[in-house]
Amino acid sequence: NRSFFQYKLVLLGDSSVGKSSLALRFVRGQFQEFQESTIGAAFMTQSVQCSDGTTVKFEIWDTAGQERYHSLAPMYYRGAHCAVVVYDISDASTFTRAKSWVRELQRQAPPNIIIALAGNKLDLSHSRQVSEEEASAYAAENKLLFVEASAKTDANVKLIFTRVAEAIPKS
Ligand code: GDP
Ligand code: MG
After folding, report:
1. What stretch or stretches form a coiled coil here (predicted)?
2. ipTM of predicted assembly, 2 dp
């Protein structure tokens, strides 16, 4: 039996929701208050251990800010095994946009892709605009994994990636 798996994971979501920040937190344990939108590298890698003893290494693809122009080429998610669609819990318009990314993935991405919905900026819950109930109901209806997290405080960041790793069938 194999014990090591490598998967392509793409980050999607509106500009400024914290995609690069989640990746930077997960991969390097860092957070920057003023993250540059162009920082998105081709990809970063990080591994997680699954409960069945396997190791999953993610090849994380971040954007270099192209999402601002709604022009992410399908090339970006071609061959992706998993996608994390991010919104900002303090900005309802980013949740609307996240739903449209989910629809696009459902139409265009590989059929067995694992999709996680991540509500970021949980530290801003005092100015929350998207309730956890609404987002988790939407996720359940669409068979998405769902986690609320904060790249700033590191709350649940690793959990997003661990849930994805656990959800991928290993055969
Ligand atoms: P991207 O455009 O989706 O890649 O978003 P960035 O990672 O560049 O983040 C946009 C802005 O939101 C930056 O100023 C980040 O410091 C900030 N940010 C990212 N994650 C969080 C978070 O969890 N909480 C708070 N309060 N700010 C965050
Ligand atoms: Mg970015």
Report:
1. none
2. 0.99
